[in-house]
Design goal:
With 196 residues, the protein is an alpha/beta fold. The protein has one domain: DHBP synthase, CATH 3.90.870. It contains 6 helices and 11 strands.
């Protein structure tokens, strides 16, 4: 780990316990996912999620994607799925596919923003799944200000967000596409268009 000047976020070269503690404590950071760099916060801490919306300049009406370490973590969101749905999810997870599932409107409104649905993703990168075991589920929109192109490198993230974020994890250049969006409808997965 290398710490930059005091006014900059902490800069890590890999997933580490210190970054996990920052997130569990309500911090926000930028890290590499299996698709793009994401700006992340604990999905279970509404104040951290609100800070992420503010720092990113995200439209408050737009819900967030949640990264989870395994299908079992859906229980934390009171999502119940059948055995056939579980098998269906195992055909797309881990991987770059986010699956929209219904939740009670009174549960986690800071994530679903009134839609009653949350998109979940189990990332393909094993190190990230292990990190999620330490942090718990993370909201993870792409690391960029609303309306701008996703950032491709950790230095770009530092330049864009500065001391508004608490840390950045450098995973090299990321130029992947955003995750594919699917919706679980009974025992089917239906492809959804991505909204701009």
């Amino acid at each position: 780990m290398v710490q930059q000047k005091r006014s900059s976020p902490l800069y890590f070269r890999s997933f580490c316990p210190r970054a996990a503690r920052i997130l569990r404590g309500g911090g926000i950071g930028v890290l590499p996912t299996d698709t793009l760099y994401g700006i992340v916060a604990s999905a279970l801490l509404p104040a951290a999620v609100a800070r992420l919306y503010f720092v990113r300049g995200r439209n408050l009406a737009k819900p967030l994607i949640v990264l989870i370490d395994s299908v079992d973590t859906l229980q934390d969101f009171r999502v119940r799925i059948s055995q056939s749905a579980r098998q269906l999810l195992s055909s797309v997870w881990p991987g770059p596919r986010s699956v929209v599932m219904p939740v009670r409107k009174t549960d986690f409104p800071h994530i679903h923003r009134g839609t009653g649905k949350i998109a979940f993703r189990v990332p393909a990168v094993r190190r990230l799944r292990l990190f999620l075991q330490a942090t718990g589920p993370l909201v993870a929109p792409s690391a960029n200000h609303e309306g701008l192109a996703p950032l491709a490198t950790a230095p770009e993230a530092v330049a864009a967000f500065g001391d508004c974020i608490d840390f950045v994890i450098d995973g090299g250049e990321r130029k992947g596409a955003p995750s594919r969006l699917l919706e679980l409808r009974g025992a089917r997965l239906v492809a959804l268009p991505r909204k701009p």
